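Protein of interest.
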Amino acid sequence: MIAASINVVFNNLPRASSAVRSGLEQVVGETTRAVTTFAQGYAPIDTGELHDSIGGQSSGLSGQAVAGTDHAIHQEFGTRYQAGTPFMRPGAEAARPGLETAVRSLLGRLA
């Protein structure tokens, strides 16, 4: 028969949880800014209205990058008359590696 006992000397879980959340909120903010910047770089520029309408905001663990013009969806996906010129989806894909790296780094520091 094997018997074992565990004594908890330090309970760092509440502090670790707070550190993870705070770190993830920062990562979400940085990634939202990156998506916005990449999308602006990929956006076709005619009058500059589409480029200038691209913005982002983050709050907590949620971030959103948006293009605020009526014709943004037609540029992104195209119409039956013209092919699309994607800019938001490539912007999100370009920011993905940075997000993954930042999350791995954060969790690695806390391990």
